[in-house]
Amino acid sequence: MADTRTIEIEVLRYNPEKGGEPHFQSFQVPFSDDTSVLQGLQYIKDHLDGSLTFRWSCRMAICGSCGKMVNGVPELSCHKFLREYYPGKVRIEPLNHFPVLRDLVIDQTDFFEKKLPSIKPYVVPKEEKPVSAGTYVQTPQQFHKYYQYSQCINCLLCYAACPQYGLKPDFTGPAALALLHRYNADSRDRGWEERAELLNAEEGVWGCTLVGYCSEVCPKHVDPAHAINQNKVNSTMDYFGVRKLLMPKGGG
Amino acid sequence: MAQVRTYVRPMGGWWRRNPFFVRYMIREASCVFLAIYTVILLVGLFRLSQGESAYESWRAALVSPVSIVFHWVALLTVSYHAYTWWKVSPKTAPDIRVAGRPLPDLVIAAGGWLATIGASVLIYLLVRWL
Amino acid sequence: MQSIQTDVVVVGGGGAGLRAAIAVAESDPRLRVALVSKVVPMRSHTVAAEGGSAGVIRADDSLDHHFDDTVGGGDWLCDQDVVEYFVAHCAEEMTQLEHWGCPWSRKDDGQVNVRFFGGMKVQRTWFAADKTGFHMLHTLFQTSHKYPSIKRYDEFFCADLIVEDGRVQGVVAIDIASGEFYLFECKAAIICTGGAGRVYGQNTNAGIVTGDGMGIAFRHGVPLRDMEFVQYHPTALPGTGVLITEGCRGEGGILTNKDGYRYLQDYGLGPPDPWPRPKAMELGPRDRLSQAFWHEEQKGRTVATALGQAVWLDLRHLGAAKIHERLPLITEVAKTFVGVDPVVSPIPVRPAVHYTMGGIPCNAHTETPLKGLYAAGECSSVGIHGANRLGSNSLAEIVVFGKVAGARAAQYSKSAPAGRPGAFRKQAEAVESRLLGLLGRDKGERLATIRDEMHETMETGVGIFRKADGMQATCAKLARLRDRYRTGLKLDDRNRAFNTEWLSAIELGFTLEIAEAIAVSALNRKESRGAHTRLDEFKERDDASYLKHTLAYRTGDGPPRLEYSPVTITKSAPKTRVYGGEGKKVELT
What we know:
A: alpha+beta; B: 4 helices
């Protein structure tokens, strides 16, 4: 077996049935070169304290379940490795700017029940096209206008990174606005008008002050800061009634 | 569904907890210096309209020690402001692709930095020689 | 206990579940649909599927070709009438997804592109880079927001069914956040809970793939069919088991052993050139490729890595541009988990458990033997995969049969009589009592101990190659493990709110029973077919005795009782499976 060293993992504990203030608890965890932070947490749960609670699923950075604050930075715990932090300690907390539900688990209902549905995250076609009519034609150029923004795994690291969301929870936020742009920019969609009110609102793109940390932490390089801020130009043109003139398709 | 008592962590001191946010706050604070400098210039314009002696006393105030310190600090912070302005400007541009690849952010930012430096040099030379 | 009245409950929010819910909503918007999932839908394991989804669209392809490839790939254990329905509806479902925004990869002219996949004669695998499952799932999840009749219950753990008067009348679920129990009173339930790969230790699956739906149906007298057929995907990373898509080989990737030799030519899949060539060498079916690895390992020709034995998946000759465009996810995954850049180095890979061909038996209408219960996706055994599944048939399966299930359940629920509200409160409370009993034991074994022993025995006795004595030992061990589980686990976590240790214990109960169904079914299939290959006296396929489905019935605390059911043969009489052979080099698109 490869060398086995030990590292200190410090985790935030909170029990909603007891309430009160969260507190930190430390564990000594053996690890080797390829042990991820997530595997460290699983070791604690399997062998040291089965009550430590955290979300995880795919272990390959595609499902978006395992987001945590690791030494103050929002990360996917499945693709960060304990060796990167050794010999220092690893402090793990639930993602910032969300209420803590239990230990490292956040209450994510604001995103899934409010923010995401609010942006109308589906193709609004020009007209209903039957399946028998075949697929739309979409050239590689049209494809690349939106593809990057369709890579979002909804991991919520960008919300944990966004201080505006932390200060003003009504802000629609990076991932939702990036997805809004994804649909506006898709050649098959004509939904700009339907999404305009939200986009143009204070809670829409104008709630963003271009801190830019969201794009830094995004594990899939979606670049939500870009999605939001290029739409400030679109929003302004919309305000002056100019957007329709310059973009007759009605899309992004 | 059933209500669970969640814990909301306070936001106080949020910007001190991460070097990225500290740099962001400095960037934002640089606007203050830019604003003060603008007011000083506007005052100067006003004094100019009031006649030569008013204008000369404004100019004298400009070379006081406090003013000199302020202007050096303002030069640094406004330069930082300009640097960060161009650094984030690619985020406001639409998606640009060149030869099938996205145009790197650094190219747009560098274009802005070079333009700023160029314009600054030009204005300095104009002011110097007019 | 709170009761929720609804018409159709969909258990599981992955590709099949979402497609079924949308189908119910489209068939009749007045029907109430409750989508109950233990994770928020985009976390479902569909998200990790990579390579693509099959659907005939090329002029040089045909439904007959897809049919033949599938039935041959399944070693003739497929129900051919269902396969005929399946292949006829794949392209239509892929087109529907495209209309809903799925970013299929395109050719330069803007038409959808298709690629080769293992065991397929012609290119027919639609793909969205190498993240097809991710894109399909997000398309379905986002589109589901269009239908107000779909009510989602995210992070509700489905724990049991209520079956009265011989039909499903309710679903009991736990709201994970609070630990409170809910009774969904319904007319129909569609199980879309995915496979059971977590029965094994080394697997490509997420932690949630624990076979809950199979386990629940099993407890209500529904048999589990063809459980012995477990697919080992030939190319997973050593250590983690993270999946490296078959799409790599569809783009021309090759497999070499420690001597740099393309070893598959020694196992009936050659000659190695010309390459690429469909249904030959690295584009052979998954069972053959995984078996070849096992043989190479026995001969000492595999590579020793820090994380175990492996072979090399070499993509270097594809070039950086193609790799970055078509295979971005596996590039990221290879760099992150094994520190390898596929552009400059080959990737170490080995087989890992990936897919459960077997499951809840259902007909082509997704109707299970239990009235009011439907099943779609990996949890079901609808009859298209037989003894070995072809890659890209399962992403197609979830939408083709997800739609069928939704439409059928909708139709059924309109004619089924409504239950009296509150009629099943007692049964639901009995479920609650039983499951709460798992909490609060002061003595007992740790969950991880039993789980790890289950993994070990399954890998040893019911792995890629099987022998009677090994399977026997595993059956005995599993019976003992079930006993130890029944005696009681000691859980550290006594809380109700978000108690994942408790939920893992409930899942372990399901996985142990499914493991036993797999082992007992395997022991009793005295032949080798597809993914079930034996090294003892039953090395050959035996159509005379075993051209039939295995049905495992639960018998309470003891091992399952087996019965057999016939396989439906229509157009294709059983032949020898032939791969490799001479052929022309093909143009990759």
